[in-house]
Design goal:
The strands form 4 sheets. The protein has a 7-stranded mixed β-sheet, sandwiched between helices. A 5-stranded mixed β-sheet has the order 9-8-10-11-12, with helices on both faces. A 4-stranded mixed β-sheet has the order 14-13-15-16, sandwiched between helices. By secondary structure, it is an alpha/beta fold. It folds into 4 domains: 149 residues, Alpha-D-Glucose-1,6-Bisphosphate, Chain A, domain 3, CATH 3.40.120.10; 98 residues, Alpha-D-Glucose-1,6-Bisphosphate, subunit A, domain 3 (Alpha-D-Glucose-1,6-Bisphosphate, Chain A, domain 3); 85 residues, Alpha-D-Glucose-1,6-Bisphosphate, subunit A, domain 3 (Alpha-D-Glucose-1,6-Bisphosphate, Chain A, domain 3), CATH 3.40.120; 75 residues, TATA-Binding Protein (2-Layer Sandwich). The chain contains 14 helices and 19 strands. Helix content is 37%, strand content 21%.
Length: 449
Amino acid sequence: MSRKLFGTDGIRGQANAHPMTADIAMRVGMAAGHLYTKGTHRHRVVIGKDTRLSGYVMESALVAGFTSVGMDVFQLGPTPTPAVAMLTRSLRADLGVMISASHNPFQDNGIKIFGPDGYKLSDEDEMRIEEVVEGDVSALLAAPDKMGRAKRLDGVYDRYIEYAKRTLDRAIRLDGLKVVVDCAHGAAYRVAPQSLWELGADVVALGIEPNGFNINRDCGSTSPDALCRKVRQVGADIGIALDGDADRVLISDETGQLIDGDQLLAVIAEAWAGGGRLSGGGVVATVMSNLGLERFLGGLGLALLRTPVGDRYVVERMRAEGYNLGGEQSGHIVMSDYTTTGDGLVTALQILSVVIASGKPVSEVCKRFAPVPQVLKSVRTNGSKPLEDSKVQTCIEQNRLKLGNNGRLLIRPSGTEPVVRVMAEGDDEGLVNAVVGNIIEAIEGATAH
């Protein structure tokens, strides 16, 4: 059975259009609530969201779905995704739900579901939910005296701030550091600046005025130019760019140069390996991570295990093989000693701890390897399937042969948008650009037909 609702990171799409409608959200709440109602205790679910206008509709629909099958609901309000995962465990909830489309524009929204252990649901569990959603959900309705209650939970921000701060050694302070943090007008617009300030930093905060429409718009980790400019303008020591739900982060050094997730993985891996804290003998990353990272880790005697794109697959591999560090080039960094999912703020704090211990500027600490030239481009498909076209397939194989053994080629349809992503890397930058250009042109030709 093929998946119809869930993609690589939950359910995602344009708000008020299938599958992101109130009806589907309510049915998902009913299905998930039914499947996770086990035993005689009062079952509970925590629901967080980012700052999108459509979050109000999705939240109300999910609350209706969960309470109608007998689950109590704790509504967290605008909350980072990692806070939802953490509170699911802390509150001994049966489920956690985050309403967010992460780095997408405000028009989109999504539903991510966490199990009672704080980890995202498996493919199998998501398939079970889909099967129930497609059936007659009226049979799931609880008796009048068994329906659930819903209430707003107070103190959510304080809980998450203290949790994030406790991931650092108590002796570490940020006194004397000027930090620019861009919260993308998203879920961390309060907690990230407050956490950094409480640790002693001089904080310059951007993207902290959400209005329902401006999440990720020309700001945050997907548009970090404003952050980099502000770092140079105010003479900051570091810039921190979060995305809409704060599960990913990119860093700017003091010169305004951007540092991606691969470099962050290298920094943390080297520091943890040196301190005897790195488990598994390496790092888990995706097929998108740069070949330069793999070579750098190899030089330290560490392995790089690759997974399909999506932090959920990184986490699954980490859990299966005993690794405590993994992530994506995009800035999803998972540190299982602290979190069950990507956490942009906690990742930034770990980087700051390495910077403070070294006494060196961010530009020196976070430039661990020279990336191999890598080009990534996306082409919209308009709902077509160009990768099934014989001319496109021939073009891909021809260009794969051109790269040979000194590079990598990856073509994949996005799990969250109607686009095909084409990535190539290799030591010859001109060849890499040509290969990507050839394949993009072939896909565009097939899409136009």
